[in-house]
Hints:
Blueprint: E1 2-6, E2 9-15, E3 19-20, H1 22-25, E4 32-49, E5 54-59, E6 63-75, E7 78-88, E8 94-114, E9 118-124, E10 130-136
Antiparallel strand pairs: 1-2, 2-8, 3-8, 4-5, 4-6, 4-8, 6-7, 7-8, 9-10
Amino acid sequence: MIKAERGDVVVVRFQDGEQLPEGLERLGLKSAAILGGVGMLRDLVLAYWDGERYLEEPVEEPVELLSLQGNIGDREGEVVVHVHVVAGKRGGAAVGGHLRSATVHNTAELVLLKLTGIRMARKPEPTGLVGLHPESDGRASD
């Protein structure tokens, strides 16, 4: 991982073989918006909420990472990385969904914004999902 920070902006490059979303957890951020990401992935596993549970959908071939967005928050003190991706397959078809897991293929370049003074709390909801409950808390984001 190669990382640069200035103020609340974090730019990171994950290198070939690094894992997502685990690499985002290793950044050590407590509250952040993942503004965008591009690159390539392999061993991609997407997930889709069917109203009761997440259904996993593996993508067998390496793909171009066309868009990656999400946030970093916490659930009872544990880091929660919530990321959605759109990926391009050979031939131009696109797939997308909740990022369950992936291996960086060559490179993945992301820009994040630390959310100073905002807690991105995750709490269980009646739907079975763990929903976002942002709170102003006055604490630093990292």
